[in-house]
Amino acid sequence: MALILAIDDSATDLSMIQYILTNHEVILARNGEEGLQELDIHPKVDLILLDLHMPVMDGFTFLDICHDRNLDTPIIILTNSEEIDKEIRGLEKGAVDFIRKPLNFKALQMRIDVQLRLKQSTELIKEHNRQLEELIEKRTQTIRRTNEITINALVRLLEVRNIETSHHARRTKVMMELLCRQLQKQGLAGYQLSDKEINELVDTAPLHDIGKVGIPDNILLKPGRLDPDEITIMREHVNKGIEALDYSIESEETKISFIETARELIASHHEWYDGSGYPANIQGQAIPLAGRLMAVIDVYDALTSKRVYKEKIEHNEAIEVMKQESPRHFDPIVFAAFLAVVPQIRKRLEES
User: Fold this and answer.
1) Catalytic residue at 212?
2) pTM of this prediction?
3) Which of 212, 222, 323, 347 is catalytic?
């Protein structure tokens, strides 16, 4: 049994509708205004039968209000045989079908049955989609948690060798998230980031120097400047990082998104905007956005953190150093976004 709202100023037509639809529960209203009041009382109406010519509020106004309310209840309009133009207008305003007066018992029953079946099918599809979305969300959370565990395990390799600390991983994640959200808010062409892309960048940011686990201690932990040969060896950490995340694929479709993000970030975060970086000497927009983001974050963290080969410097001094080398080193859009969120970065890092 369905709940049907019949809106018509003709008492005769309303009585006939009630008589014809004895197998359903029928609510009656004499104009559009009463119809809206009944909808407020009975929000789960399954179907509406709507006359167009009524006092107080006609059917067209009722349709407009239903549209504004995003009402998805199917509406069948009732028209006279000569009102073809009004039938079209009603359908354009959201009605799903029309029935001409005088009402025909069989036609009314069949039209209503069709719409009720369609509504039921639509609701089943919506429920199925809702369940699928829940399942996808659960699996997405599981995958992200698995990725996080994998990344943490790799980052611990750096900690074991005293190359970095867990604080470094935390700092890079905080900075990456705030920087990405700033770019997302700006919405500039070429810098748009989806939530999924931001999550992957944030999760994989701590892996940018994972290749350092393959660099000998006498170079990696040297407390002074590296000589040219040592610099060449040190720079190999980029390729070693890419190789560490290598995996075989049968086609483009089998690529693992977060691994690809990590590999891209690792491969390009030492590239300079003017092309003087390494390992590929690419420049400008040819550098993947992941690398341009990480370049700014990595330099700021390196300047403001104590390393085996240097003492840390204060925030204001670090920003001045970065501003001086910005034209050569950093994407100007990314660097401007970074400067905009630096106060938030400092606050988050101090709180955590």
Assistant:
1) yes
2) 0.62
3) 212
